[in-house]
Design brief:
The protein is about 35% helix and about 15% strand. It is an alpha/beta fold and about 350 residues long. One of its GO terms (molecular function) is oxidoreductase activity.
Length: about 350
C-alpha cells in the first residue's frame, strides 16, 4: 500500500477530456460513497479532509450527483469548495434520477433540467458547473429536447460542458448533433466491459471523452469476496447480482487471478485493475471512489504501474464476471434509448 509520502511523489498528469477544451486530472475521485449507497454517510469533516488531500495530491476532478443522498453529497462537496478551493478543481455533477413516493423516476424534460441545474448550483455554492451529465436517459423524452435545454444552460453560463451517463450509441449520436457532448460516463472495469463493442467506439469516433465509474468493480477488484462480509445492511452492493451466492464464488476466481498477477507486478490488486483502465487510452479518466485517505493514496499508485500488451491480454482472459451489473427491475439504470423527436408533444 502506498504511504502518504509515496503518494505525494506520484505526479498526477492532466488530460484533455473530450474535444471541447475541458482539462482534468488523469484520475478523478468519485464522491458517491461518502454520502450514500455504500452504508451510512461518513463523517463530514473526514470527507472534506479527503477531498482536500486529493486536490493537494493532484486529483482535482470530483464527481457527484444530485441523487446521491439525495442532495447530501453535493452539499458536502460544496462545503469542501469554500475558501478559494473552487478555482483549483473541476466539478462534475448529474441530474435525471428523482424519487417520487419512494420510487425512482427518470426525467429529462426541459423544466426539470433547468430546475435541477439551479438546485445543484445552489447546493454546490458555485456559479457554473464544469461538467453536467444526464445521469440516466429518460425513455419518454427525446434526447434532442433534453439537449436543447442543456444547450441553453451552456449559453447562459450555468454549465460549461455537457455529458451523458449510461447512454446508448444512437442516443449519444443524436445528442451530439444538438450540442457537442464532452464526456460519456459508463461503468468500465475488468469485469464490466459491455460498452467496448459499440459505445466506446462511438465516443472515439465523435471525439467524446470517456469517464469510467466503478473501475474497481465496486471494491471487489480491491478486496475480493471477503468484501461482502464487511458490508453493512444499508450497503446496496449486497443486492447486486455479482455479490450474490453462486455468482460470488465464481467471481472469486477473477480476484484470485488479478491478485496473482498483481503480486508478480509488485503492486496491489486495486492498482492493477485501475492501471488496466488507464491503459485503455489517453481519452479515458477513471474515477475510483473511496472514503479513506490510505485507499486514495493506494489508488493513485496505479498511475505508475506499467502494463505490457501481454499483461493486458492475461488480465482480460480471466475477467469474465458472473451476474448482471444491476439487480433485476432497475432497467432504467442500464443503457437506454429515447423516443424520436417527432413523438414529442411537450414544449422544447
Amino acid at each position: 500500500m502506498a504511504t502518504a509520502s509515496e503518494a505525494a511523489a506520484i505526479h498526477v498528469s492532466r488530460m484533455k477530456l473530450g474535444s471541447q477544451g475541458l482539462e482534468v486530472s488523469a484520475q478523478g475521485l468519485g464522491c458517491l460513497g461518502m454520502s450514500d449507497f455504500y452504508g451510512q454517510p461518513k463523517p463530514e469533516p473526514d470527507m472534506i479532509a479527503l477531498i482536500h488531500h486529493a486536490a493537494a495530491a493532484g486529483v482535482t476532478f470530483f464527481d457527484t450527483s444530485d441523487f446521491y443522498g439525495p442532495h447530501v453529497n453535493e452539499i458536502l462537496l460544496g462545503k469542501a469548495l469554500r475558501d478559494g478551493f473552487r478555482e483549483k478543481v473541476k466539478v462534475a455533477t448529474k441530474f435525471g434520477i428523482t424519487l417520487r413516493d419512494g420510487k425512482r423516476e427518470i426525467r429529462g424534460d426541459p423544466a426539470y433540467v433547468r430546475a435541477a441545474c439551479e438546485g445543484s448550483l445552489q447546493r454546490l455554492g458555485i456559479e457554473c458547473i464544469d461538467l453536467y451529465y444526464q445521469h440516466r436517459i429518460d425513455t419518454l423524452v427525446p434526447i434532442e429536447v433534453t439537449m436543447g435545454e442543456l444547450k441553453k444552460l451552456v449559453e447562459e453560463g450555468k454549465i460549461k460542458y455537457i455529458g451523458l451517463s449510461e447512454a446508448s450509441s444512437s442516443t449519444i449520436r443524436r445528442a451530439h448533433a444538438v450540442h457537442p457532448i464532452t464526456a460519456v460516463q459508463l461503468e468500465w472495469s475488468l469485469w464490466a466491459r459491455d460498452a467496448e463493442d459499440d459505445i466506446i467506439p462511438t465516443c472515439r469516433e465523435l471525439g467524446i471523452g470517456i469517464v469510467a465509474y466503478s473501475p474497481l468493480g465496486r471494491g471487489f477488484l480491491s478486496s475480493g469476496p471477503k468484501l461482502v462480509d464487511s458490508l453493512s445492511d444499508q450497503d446496496f452492493r449486497k443486492a447486486l447480482p455479482r455479490f450474490q451466492a453462486g455468482n460470488l464464488e465464481k467471481n472469486a476466481s477473477i480476484f484470485e487471478r488479478v491478485n496473482e498477477i498483481a503480486t508478480r507486478k509488485g503492486c496491489t490488486p486495486s492498482q492493477l485493475a485501475l492501471a488496466w483502465v488507464h491503459h485503455q487510452g489517453g481519452d479515458v479518466c477513471p474515477i475510483p471512489g473511496t472514503t479513506k485517505i490510505e485507499n486514495f493514496n493506494q489508488n493513485i499508485g496505479a498511475l505508475v504501474v506499467k502494463l505490457s500488451p501481454e499483461d493486458m491480454a492475461e488480465l482480460e482472459a480471466c475477467a469474465s464476471a458472473e451476474g448482471d451489473r444491476y439487480m433485476s427491475g432497475i432497467s432504467t439504470w442500464r443503457v437506454s434509448e429515447t423516443p424520436p423527436l417527432s413523438s414529442w408533444k411537450g414544449e422544447a
